[in-house]
Amino acid sequence: MNFSQLMTQLKQHKQDAIYLILGDQSYLSDQIKQAFTSLIPDEQRAMNIGVYDMEETPVSSAVEDAISVPFFGEQRLVMINRPYFLTGLRVKSKVEHHVDDFLEYLKHPESSTIMVIFAPYDKLDSRKKITKSLKKVATTVEIGKLRESEIKSTVKQRIAAEGYAIDEDALERMMQLTAGQLTSMMNDLPKLFLYNKDGKQITLSSVNGLVSPSIEQSVFDLVNSVLKKNAKESMDIYRNLVLENEAPIGINAVLIQQFRLLLQVMILQKHGYSQGNLAASLKVHPYRVKLALQTIRHFDYKQLRDAYLGLVETEREMKSSNRSPELLFELFLLKFMRPDVA
C-alpha cells in the first residue's frame, strides 16, 4: 500500500488492526499521524492515544497500552516510533526490549486498538523473527522511495490546496535544489507562498531566491565542476560548504559516495539496467539516479575512476596527516586537472 491508498482507506473509516509505516519521509509520516489521530474524537484523545519511542521506552509498555480497553470511547490508538529492534542497527539506548509480549500481541491483536508502527529506515532485518511476524499481519505502507512523479504530485496538491500554482520550471528547480527530498520541499513552501502572495503563482525566480541548495545538491554541483575541471568554481563551492559548517572530511566522504554512485550507474547501465532498476538495485533515491544518468553522458569511465581514486587518497591523507584539509582538496584538484603533476 502507498500513502495515497492509506489516506483513502482512512477517509472511508476502514482501518486495519496493525500498520507498518516504512521509510524516512518526515512530511508523510506527520500527515499519517494526523490522519490516524483524527479517528479518535477530540475529547477522548488524552486517554486513548499513546505514543511510544522505542529508543526511550520498552515495547512492552506499548503492548500494555494496546491491550487496554478504550477509556469512555470505542477505539484506542497506539503509535510506536523508531522500532530499531526490527533492523540490524546498533542504537545506543539503555532500554531493553523483550519482544515476546509483542510477538504474542501480533498473534492476537486487540480489536478495539489501532497500532501504527513508524519505521523510518531504508529496510528492516527480514531474518529476525519479530520482523517476519510483523510483516505477516501488518498492513505495510511504503513511504521511503517515492518516484519523481509522486513527489511532484504531492507538492502540487499542497500548493493547489493553498490556492496557488507553480510554474513547471520552478517545480523542477525545487526538485534539483532539494535533491528531491519531499520534506525539504514542503518546508520551503510557506516562504514561497508569502513571497508570491499577490499573484498566487510560484515562479522560477522566487525559487532561486528563496530555496537554499541541500548539501546533496551542493556536492552534486561540486562533482560537475570537478569533472569539468573548473578549479575556481570547485573551490568556491567547497569553501561555501565549509562556511556552512560542513566538515571537510564529511564533504570528501560525500564526494566519494557520489563518484562511486556515478561509476555504479555507468557500469550497470551498460549491462541494461533501467532508471527504475538502478534505484532499486543501488537502494538510492530515484532522483539521485536521474541526475547521475544525466552526468555520465558527458564523461567517460576513466575520468570518473581517476576522480574517485584521487578522493579516496585525499581522505586517507586527511585522516593520517596534520595538513590543512582545504590544501589537500586543492592538491587533489591540481592532480586531477593536471595528470602530469606528481
TrEMBL record:
The keyword Nucleotidyltransferase applies. Its EC number is 2.7.7.7. It catalyses: DNA(n) + a 2'-deoxyribonucleoside 5'-triphosphate = DNA(n+1) + diphosphate. InterPro entries: DNA_pol3_clamp-load_cplx_C, DNA_pol3_delta-like_C, DNA_pol3_delta_N, DNA_polIII_delta, P-loop_NTPase. GO terms for molecular function: DNA binding; DNA-directed DNA polymerase activity. The keyword Amino-acid biosynthesis does not apply. Belongs to the DNA polymerase HolA subunit family. This is DNA polymerase III subunit delta. It comes from Lentilactobacillus hilgardii (strain ATCC 8290 / DSM 20176 / CCUG 30140 / JCM 1155 / KCTC 3500 / NBRC 15886 / NCIMB 8040 / NRRL B-1843 / 9).
